[in-house]
């Protein structure tokens, strides 16, 4: 796919700035689960490598042990594989290079381009200045090189308290780009690292480790999101000052998707506050949540391809993601009938002991899938919403005296209703027309509605979870407290739903279309005696209609 990034790569190859192969990397920080925004970056980086017959590394930027866990490392690898990408033997960690990073920092000190600073982080921020005012030099900026080398060695050896000293680059405290005003390169941090254990109490900052990792691995094009555009001069400065191999950093607009939060910090807040059941809650935009919800890897790749890459931040409607999935599932998902809010129907002129099998199409989009048998009997269930006692003018479904078609079944007419002591309708008394078996009328009689249904003799009870957008507002982060935009109806649990018997053999990762309802998948935690089906996506974008 052609875009501004491929134009840059093409020019670099044509000018021999870089020789083949093109070498990219996907560099997640293992401080949370990956989300749909990371999926865009994964597809871009691995996709570019494939397009140019190149290579793509998976590298964990694990330089902040206080927030990183092995659980996140494992989940990231699972997600990348599930999306369909393979890093082969190129799995790397920034922590692999800690010794090299330290030596590079020593070289900067020896060249007079780094110094040990005793200011606190708050004082460093105070000294940094503003967009209109230059910063002030640290009192330690002109420390002798030998003293800096000694202090940095002692920092590494654990002689000083956390936060008491930092190593800073010596650039320009009046630089128009605040990032370049003597940025911190190392900080003292006594935290147990998931790989290096307690070998280090001195950790590099992301900006220092990232460019060096790219250089060490021979990356040709370092693809980052736009928030790193201001940091590119520092990326370049470090590599040029150390006279190292220099990849090209290119920035693109990160994915912003409506009704969704893509901040790992805020997603972690949702998990810790138990607002959601975990990182893989089907309402979460994490790849694991989307996978559990029932999204396919191919639909996510298709979505990422459709939205493309840009240099301008924008808000992508979540409907585009849902439509990518609908287009795929419409072709592949077997059709089944399920009544989520059952209303009993008694067909009074149907023989009490009679049970018959009817043919039902598995998928009209794919005739090769054939048909299945469904059971028809005197006692049936339809949706409560498919009947109204006093219907308005444009209601075409079942009401007293009206005839409708039961899909694959017969024409039925409602004759009467049964209510409980509270006045609630509990049953419908109907008749059927034997001549309309299969759903067709020999006299070409027209009906205005076709209903899905299940037989009491050919169905079983199950729990169905209906998921909706987690946030009501398209841009929930516009408010300081993003949680005020949580959708109270993001999860609705329906018990005692009636599902056709063929769904008893439903398996994990098999997706089904419940006719007239949407696409559903068996939840991973389902028990045989109490199956739970999750709504993946509705048959159409019903949300947009609700908001009008």
General description of the model:
The chain is an alpha/beta fold and 548 residues long. Among the domains are: 4-252, Rossmann fold, CATH 3.40.50.620; 338-452, Ribosomal Protein L25, Chain P, CATH 2.40.240. It is 26% helix and 24% strand. It has helices at residues 4-14, 36-51, 70-82, 98-110, 121-127, 145-156, 206-216, 232-241, 264-272, 287-293, 297-307, 318-332, 542-547; strands spanning 23-26, 55-60, 91-93, 114-117, 166-169, 184-188, 202-204, 221-225, 248-252, 256-257, 315-316, 335-336, 338-339, 342-347, 355-361, 371-377, 379-383, 403-406, 411-419, 425-433, 450-451, 454-455, 459-467, 491-500, 511-514, 518-522, 532-537. The strands form seven sheets. A seven-stranded mixed β-sheet has the order 12-25-26-27-23-24-13, covered by helices on one side. The chain is elongated and about 100 Å long.
Helices and strands in order, then pairings?
Elements: H1 4-14, E1 23-26, H2 36-51, E2 55-60, H3 70-82, E3 91-93, H4 98-110, E4 114-117, H5 121-127, H6 145-156, E5 166-169, E6 184-188, E7 202-204, H7 206-216, E8 221-225, H8 232-241, E9 248-252, E10 256-257, H9 264-272, H10 287-293, H11 297-307, E11 315-316, H12 318-332, E12 335-336, E13 338-339, E14 342-347, E15 355-361, E16 371-377, E17 379-383, E18 403-406, E19 411-419, E20 425-433, E21 450-451, E22 454-455, E23 459-467, E24 491-500, E25 511-514, E26 518-522, E27 532-537, H13 542-547
Parallel strand pairs: 1-2, 2-3, 8-9, 10-11, 12-25, 14-20, 18-21, 23-27
Antiparallel strand pairs: 4-5, 5-6, 6-7, 13-24, 14-17, 15-16, 17-22, 18-19, 19-20, 23-24, 25-26, 26-27
Helix pairs in contact: 2-11, 7-8, 11-12
């Amino acid at each position: 796919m052609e875009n501004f990034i491929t134009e840059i790569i093409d020019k670099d190859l044509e000018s021999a700035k870089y020789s083949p192969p093109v070498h990219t990397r996907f560099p997640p920080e293992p401080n949370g689960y990956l989300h749909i925004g990371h999926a865009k970056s994964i597809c871009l980086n691995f996709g570019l490598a494939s397009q140019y017959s190149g290579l793509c590394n998976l590298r964990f930027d694990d330089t902040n042990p206080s927030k990183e866990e092995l659980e996140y490392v494992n989940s990231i690898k699972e997600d990348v594989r599930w999306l369909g990408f393979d890093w082969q033997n190129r799995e790397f960690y920034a922590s692999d290079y800690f010794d090299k990073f330290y030596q590079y920092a020593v070289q900067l000190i020896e060249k007079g381009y780094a110094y040990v600073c005793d200011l606190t982080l708050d004082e460093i921020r105070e000294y940094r200045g503003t967009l209109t005012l230059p910063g002030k030099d640290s009192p330690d900026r002109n420390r002798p090189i030998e003293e800096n080398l000694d202090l940095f060695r002692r920092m590494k050896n654990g002689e000083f308290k956390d936060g008491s000293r930092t190593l800073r680059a010596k650039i320009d405290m009046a630089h128009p780009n605040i990032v370049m005003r003597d940025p911190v390169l190392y900080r003292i941090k006594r935290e147990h690292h998931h790989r290096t254990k307690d070998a280090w109490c001195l950790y590099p900052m992301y900006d220092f480790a990232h460019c060096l990792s790219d250089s060490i691995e021979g990356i040709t094009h370092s693809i980052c999101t736009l928030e790193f555009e201001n940091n590119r001069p520092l990326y370049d400065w470090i590599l040029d000052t150390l006279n190292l191999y220099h990849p090209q950093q290119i920035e693109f607009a990160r994915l912003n998707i409506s009704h969704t939060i893509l901040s790992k910090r805020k997603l972690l807040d949702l998990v810790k506050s138990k607002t959601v059941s975990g990182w893989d809650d089907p309402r979460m935009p994490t790849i694991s949540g989307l996978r559990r919800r029932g999204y396919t890897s191919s639909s996510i790749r298709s979505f990422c391809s459709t939205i493309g890459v840009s240099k301008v931040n924008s808000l992508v409607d979540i409907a585009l993601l849902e439509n990518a999935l609908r287009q795929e599932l419409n072709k592949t998902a077997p059709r089944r009938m399920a009544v989520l809010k059952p209303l009993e129907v008694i067909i009074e002129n149907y023989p009490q002991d009679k049970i018959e099998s009817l043919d039902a199409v598995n998928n009209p989009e794919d005739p090769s899938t054939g048909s299945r048998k469904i059971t028809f009997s005197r006692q049936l269930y339809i949706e409560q919403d498919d009947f109204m006692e006093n219907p308005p003018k444009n209601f075409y479904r079942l009401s007293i005296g009206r005839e409708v078609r039961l899909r694959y079944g017969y024409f039925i007419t409602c004759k009467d209703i049964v209510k409980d002591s509270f006045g609630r309708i509990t049953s419908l008394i109907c008749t059927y027309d034997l001549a309309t078996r299969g759903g067709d009328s020999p006299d070409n009689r027209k009906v205005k509605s076709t209903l899905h249904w299940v037989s009491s003799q050919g169905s079983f009870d199950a729990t169905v979870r209906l998921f909706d957008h987690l946030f009501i507002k398209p841009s929930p982060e516009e408010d300081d407290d993003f949680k005020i935009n949580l959708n109270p109806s993001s999860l609705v649990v329906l018990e005692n739903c009636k599902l056709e018997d063929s769904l008893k053999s439903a398996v994990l990762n098999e997706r089904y279309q419940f006719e007239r309802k949407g696409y559903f998948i068996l939840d991973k935690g389902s028990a045989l005696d109490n199956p739970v089906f999750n709504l993946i996506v509705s048959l159409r974008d019903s949300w947009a209609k609700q908001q009008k």
